[in-house]
Protein 1
Amino acid sequence: MNAPSLFGTVGVILQLLIVVALSPVLTGLMRQIRALLEGRAGSGIAQPWRDLRKLMRKQRTSPRGTTEVFRVAPLLLVATCLVVTAVAPFVTTASALDPVADLFAVVALLTLGTVALALAGLDTGTAFGGMGASRETTIIALVEPTMLVAIFALSVPVGSTNLAAIVTSGLDDPAQVFSPVSLLAAVALIVVIIAETGRLPVDNPSTHLELTMVHEAMVLEYSGPDLAMVELASSMRLTVFLGLLANLFVPWGIATSASPLLIAVGVLAFVVKVAFLGGCLAVGEVFLAKLRLFRVPELLAGSFVLGLLAVAASFFLA
């Protein structure tokens, strides 16, 4: 195995270990920040891992009448998160799976996991499952095009839709990071992350109110190890989206060579950036109220317009 391949393989392994191990910790950190700002003690940043361990010890159950769609959805959700984690430029710009690190492939994989969960909600045949799946499908239809055009705007000056190439270009030419194109694309992508991960004001991850929940409505019938996989995948998706936001718009710190010191710096930079963005998201949620459901498409349509403006600006300013 040559040096670049070894470097890419090490990067893939590191990214998988970091995202899988620290994603629940990120969720716990965000919950703890919200608790402190709301005057509560909180349960600690390690509570999500304790919850996952407890769920893994319970018996797996399936509602009567469900098919393989319901049982396979958690596995598919986790698998798509793992593939995106392996190919995306989080710790290093090199990857043993670099051809897969394409904008359209990554967005398709993330969408596949969401669609699998929505189909599982429909497969239960319950009113809540169908309601959550319907709402999630509406959000997906507006969010995925926004994600595509926002990142595509960054790829126009680079001439490639490969995520590692976009990050490397930002390292080589810092002026791109501070351009109007990046600003418009960043705002659009932030709205996408809020909607995709079910955060306020689009969804409230800490409630189970029948008339407001979206993500929780689709997973009400899951229990035991299946619910643990869904919860782990939700935390991983949040980490993946925040990692993409961090390295696409603030690429500094990512390792570009096989130096152990640079790889260590890349790991530290990724953890710090994701934790900072997660903390900012948690602080913002304290001061936000959930939007009414019929207002959510307006917010997402606005983010799509920002993405289109970023694409137009990238051609005019190129």
Note: The chain is about 70% helix and 0% strand.
Protein 2
Amino acid sequence: MFWLLENYIRRYLQYLKIERRLSANTITAYERDLNRFITYLQTTSARDVSGLSTEIIQEFQPWLSSTTLSDNSIARTLASVRGFLNFLSNEEILRSDIDIIFTPTKLGFRLPKALSVGQTLKLVEVLSHSEVLLDMRDYALIEFLYSTGARVSEAVTLDLNQVNFDENVVVLTGKGNKTRLVPLGSKAKAALERYLVRARPHLMKSPTSRVFLNKSGKDLSRTSAFNVIQRAAKLSNIDIPVSPHTLRHCFATHLLDGGADLRVVQELLGHQSIATTQIYTKVSMEKIRETYALTHPRAL
């Protein structure tokens, strides 16, 4: 029924990949959001692009609000659909008399969850002495994530030639295929070298440049990386939700707590906007307030 619209979505996703050079993960998120739009249209009188109207488009937001999606997911979905509809308008596929207007969704501010330094070290070191091949890999992965603040997608797609052990730096490829240089800490370097020498050759079934491999010798997936962190958290008796992104939060928060300059942290994280990095200053301020409340005799 919506084959023509689905074809335009494929064209749009191709445009995002080739012209905008967005990452595969970002494009997957766009596709998921646009599929929600298709699901919504199935409840309307529209049968394809020609049936779209201002009224039908503007009723999409209330329909989203009636679902179980969070405010953040709704805001992202609306942004994805707005971008797609603007693309159709620029391509002169959408009628010129159609207005693409959504009411801005008010988002609640949520502080990123970061572990304490003590908790983080327990998580990072729980597998450090294991001689099991996969444990060597997992320890290297955890150390790498915490040492560099890398996104999980940057870690699982890391190639051997991106790691410079002589200079103790790693080249990370982030969103929009933008690269940045990040220092590699001594603990992460030692964990990586141990894994690469003692474990990876046994895991590798065919030639590959990927650093982190699964037990079948293929690229480690994002899901597998998530499971690695979950297992390490369980072994270290950390009973709060953790993920690879938790270690990125810890990386940023602990740097700022230690006195690192905000601009330096921005560069290390690969944030395009300083405003994104400033979220972590609020995390640190929360810690300051908590410490003050617990220790100053006149705080309460």
Note: The chain has two domains: 3-90, 117-294.
Protein 3
Amino acid sequence: MSVPFDLTCWYLNARRIAEITSVTPIAAPGAADPHTARTAQLIQLKNAAVAWMKANGALPLEVLLAKGTLVPGAMFTHHSTFSFSGLSKFAEAQLKKRPVKRLATAYSKLDEWQQGGRVEFEFHDEHLVSGSSWHELAGQRRKFVLGLVTDIQGGTIKCVPYVIANIVNPHSGMPADGGPWYNHLEVHVPQLGAFEKAQRIQERLTKASLNLLKAVPEKDIKTAFAALINEPVVPKDWGGEASDLFSSRVVLDGQQVSTAFLLKGPAKFHPMTPADLGKNGDQIGRLFDEPADLLVLQHCHEVTPAVRKQMRAYAQQMGNPRRFCIIDGYDTLRILKAYEKCGFRVDEAAQGAAL
């Protein structure tokens, strides 16, 4: 089940949205003033853009990079922190009735893909949708962008923005603060009913603690997890698998959800990077091909930020946005201790000292 979403737009290029959606907005019946008529048309175009993304599965920029399919002419989405500049000069030029020498600009860093990498674009004030846009598109802001790649020069991706917006709750229209989109659709171990006792393990775990997992085979962790989620079917490993364990019995925030697990045992006992997940992290892509509402990546060691960013990107595919969870070595150890699996027990002395 996809995670629902809507957009509050701050910038919308009406002509470009009309071109890709084939929607020609019409004025609201009875709209007496131009402002009301324009607002109604912008809402129609925004709804058309959302529907187009859902139907066409517009891919996140990072997914296109991982697949090696990012080329000029490609449509993409990007939900991240952008640095905006230049709109204040627009306002000053308009006030003094002077020509604008340079368009406003924005960029978002892509250092996890290439040192110094970034996506950048210019934008004109004529496509701003409200007075609040001048404030929302200034400084560093977390925004959602639907755009078109125009050029790739080394690590710099140049593009044209079609929409710059906030992702919002579709029912209230309010910013998704506190909801799944606030955390880029990531959920955490305590939210999973089968693993909630893990948060009770208060003993201090260090990097050295992870060595306890070095001798635990992946198949033992699979068996332990299957028992905890009450999944009776524990498949054998084979080379073409998209996931290691699939179940419809996982409970997330009190709701039963279908879940696919990708388990990475101690064979590569070091902090996980995308290189540990196949070529360009394609194991993540295969995991998200599973027909599951929740995708779980488990590792017996630390998980680097680059892997988390890839998981976020795949989760935020607007045609089918879904939730994900990362269970690193520390969380794995807490789960196994809390439920006394794989020979682990709660260290009562350490637990008492922590309390």
Note: The first strand starts at residue 6 and ends at 12.
